[in-house]
Amino acid sequence: MVSVSKTVRFPEELIRVIEHRARQEKVDESTAIKQLLGLGAEGYAIELFRRGEITLNEAARLAGVTLRQMIDSLQRHGVKGNVRLDQQRRALEFVGELG
Amino acid sequence: MIGIDSDTLIKLTRAGAKEVVASAVEIVVSPEVKKETVDEGKSGGFPDAFEIERNIKRGLIKVVRARKAGETETIVRELGLMGGEAGVFRLFMDGKCKAVASGDQKFLDLIEALNIPFVTSSALIVYLWKNGKIEKDVCLKLMKKLEPMISDEEYQLALFELKGGS
């Protein structure tokens, strides 16, 4: 994986979270930041998928996991699926036409 | 003939419905879907990946490669389709399937805008019952197993269809 350097200024409340994570996980602050960003990316991907704004593949890519890991992650976070009522209605109409 | 995406294939497998569906409806998958469901699944230690592989080896599910036509590739690129979604879309555009099975809201919106017929995993189970391939009680059991993996809207409407048909 390619690493890219970025300079960021964190507000105090986020510094407290980073320090807490570093203590809790017994890692340095740089690792703690990466871990927290990873968790945030997963949550972000889950929320966008839940709202139907991204596909499952896009969600997996955003979260940096495989498609299968993403399916399990969504289920763990209570997102069973995101098919809307109107979409299911059309799917059922289609199978009705299949005879 | 239905082209199925990775999410739907995995969910039907986990619900124990894949073989029933595949014995009644011809199921085709793209090489991208095979990669996501079998290859990545096996390396990640997902047991259902081995089951899907067995079904492919037995010919119950066919892996079909679509031609990469210029117009199709332009749409894939412009819509930002990736992996199995792009794969199943290519299968339809190449005439390798008559409809697409998916449970992905955004993907369904995209293919509907292109007038591509679609089904969901639960609609496939309803189809089996409507065509006398399985009894209603079997259908309800399969639906119950699928319930933890599909949206409430999808589940409730499928159930309504089943109960309305009694």
Written overview of the protein:
The complex is a heterodimer of chains A (99) and B (166). Chain A is mainly α and 99 residues long. Chain A has one domain (12-98). Helices cover 69% and strands 0% of the residues of chain A. Chain A contains 5 helices and no strands. Chain A has helices at residues 12-25, 29-50, 56-63, 67-76, 85-98. In chain A, α2 (29-50) packs antiparallel against α3 (56-63). Chain A is elongated and about 60 Å long. The mean pLDDT of chain A is 93. Chain B has 166 residues and is α/β, with parallel strands linked by helices. Chain B has one domain (2-121): 5'-nuclease (Rossmann fold). Chain B is 63% helix and 8% strand. Chain B is built from 10 helices and 5 strands, in the order βααβααβααβαβααα. Chain B has a 5-stranded parallel β-sheet. Chain B is globular and about 45 Å long. Chain B starts with a strand and ends with a helix. The mean pLDDT of chain B is 93. At the A-B interface, α3, α4 and α5 of A face α1, α3, α6, α7 and β5 of B.
